[in-house]
Amino acid sequence: MLTAIALGSNLGDSAALIDSAINQLSKIADSDAPFLRASIHRTKPVGCPPGSPDFLNTVVAFEYSGTALDLLRHTQRIEREFGRTTAEVRNAPRLIDLDIIFFGNEISSIPPLVLPHPRTALRRFVLAPFAEILPGLVLPGQSATVHELLECLREA
Q1: pTM metric for this prediction
Q2: Catalytic: 123?
Q3: In this structure, is the dihedral angle defined by the CA atoms of residues 80, 25, 16 and 47, taken in order, positive or negative?
Q4: pLDDT at 89 over 80
Q5: Is 84 in the active site?
């Protein structure tokens, strides 16, 4: 199943943390399919506490043969291994953040995994790198491509 994961970090050596997390994700990807990786973007924090440092963000896409919940368990394990803890404050600075953007054509509104990610179309920091690797993709429930969604945000 084609899936995409957004990665972000704004604490510690963010570039190294993102590279290491991508390395971990590449180990669970189907080895006979391409592993797509966008460039890293430096972005201002959105909805974060005042004084939060800038983020580094990117997106990867790959084929995965497990279930969406299996993938969620893998991403949460990676976050824990890299020192991510539950923050008292919403959107507090963090060492690493991995969000499943979509998982094939799956649509789910049942926690713990809402698919596709409900705020993807509103987040330039996700859409800009996503559009580098899968610009023509139409997310389930959307009528516009990833590139078109990004263009709509640029116009706003």
Answers
A1: 0.94
A2: no
A3: negative
A4: no
A5: yes
Which among 37, 97, 123, 124 is annotated as catalytic? 97
Catalytic residue among 70, 80, 99, 123: 99
Determine the pLDDT at residue 84: 79
Residue 99 is among the residues annotated as catalytic for this protein: yes
CB atoms within 10 A of CB 128: 20
Given a contact cutoff of 8 angstroms between Cβ atoms, the answer to whether 124 and 146 are in contact is no
Of the CA atoms within 13 Å of residue 26, those in its CB half-sphere come to 10
**What is the tens place of the pLDDT at every residue in 7-48?**
999 999 999 999 999 999 999 999 999 999 999 999 998 888
Sequence letter at residue 67? T
**Contact in structure between 97 and 78 (CB atoms under 8 Å):** no
CA–CA–CA angle 62, 70, 86 (5° rounding): 100
**Bridge partners, residue 42, by sequence:** 56
DSSP state of 108: B
CA atoms of 17 and 23, how far apart (whole Å):
10
Catalytic residue among 37, 84, 123, 124: 84
Residue 13 annotated as catalytic: no
Residue 48, phi then psi, degrees to nearest 5: -100, 160
